[in-house]
Amino acid sequence: MNKKQGLRRIPTKELISELDRREAMANEFVARREILANELAMIDAEIAALEDASGTQRNGVYRRHVRRSAAARTRSANQEPLNVILHNVLKGKTMSVSEAVEAVQKSGYKSNAANFRSVVNLTLLKRKDLFKKKGRGQYTAK
Fold this sequence. Notes:
142 residues, mainly alpha, Arc Repressor Mutant, subunit A, 2 domains, three-stranded antiparallel beta sheet, two-stranded antiparallel sheet, 5 strands, 59% helix
């Protein structure tokens, strides 16, 4: 069956209402785009004003500033480093990496890491002076 035959089966009223619905959506998107374009223009003006005021222009060329992610800018303030807390959690116990992650987080350790499990795993692997591998994925404190 080709498309023309399929459209012939749909009542005209339904086609008209669908076209009206899509036209209304298009109008909403156009209005939203205009608002966002105005906002972007204001932000560009603010950036230009800040660059001029801060003197980042040297010899006619603006320096580009490297922007870091929010996680890189704000660092969690913990009382002790991860390896110390991990060592305290594993004293006298054998745990998997996942169990160690949960225990460290329950102890109040804060991290902005996207994959905190990897951070804990690396700490367990690198700090052979503090941790001993008991079996596959099982660690304990020395």
